[in-house]
Hints:
Elements: H1 10-28, H2 32-38, E1 47-50, E2 56-59, H3 85-107, H4 113-124, H5 129-133, E3 152-153, E4 156-158, E5 164-166, H6 169-182, E6 201-203, E7 210-212, H7 220-223, H8 232-240
Antiparallel strand pairs: 1-2, 3-6, 4-5, 6-7
Amino acid sequence: MEMGSSPRTVEEIFKDYSGRRASILRALTYDVDEFYGICDPEKDNLCLYGHPNESWEVTLPAEQVPPELPEPALGINFARDGMNRKDWLSLVAVHSDCWLLSVAFYLGAQLNHNERKRLFSMINDMPTVFEVVAERKPLKDKPSAAESGSKAKGSTKRSSDGQVKSIQKAAADESSEDEEDEHGDTQCGSCGGNYNADEFWIGCDICERWYHGKCVRITPAKAESIKHYKCPSCSIKRGRA
């Protein structure tokens, strides 16, 4: 990738960072068994790459010198069998956080002081890969017992008879503080973003993770017709079963 064709604005670089971060998180959480199996210590030096399109790849490092972008940690597979699985995944997560930051600020080399500060602030508002993998920042909070059916936050909710009702703005204003406290640590299972009462969220009835509606392409209107929501990851797992 040439600097001329790389993301240039703070927003473009943050979008690139978010996509790469989401792919790394997928490898270390939802696809962890597949990732663990690929990282065979008997293989050559392997690297974990996260791509902006949210796909991940474990492969040999780039042969080009110098590389087009900063390279991730080399040889992540060698320590796999010599460590506790969770500790090894946490170690990979730490190295991945370093790599994500190095790529972001490599792409932001031409940003000015204020732009770099804004970029770091946007990145710092999201939990690190390590915090998620080590469960210091869980992907979601468990929903309260009162929540049922296709759990949606922010825009819709279900009554006890299963009917979806719109939340009136006045009522939402009164309860927004309580809702923020209750779900303050909830994070999107897709992008890892923190809960915001102004956004539409939906919860998976299988794994009970929460998602931005936009991340799983579910609108408030579409949610009204869904009796039991199943997220993309659970849909894939069910399909394999």
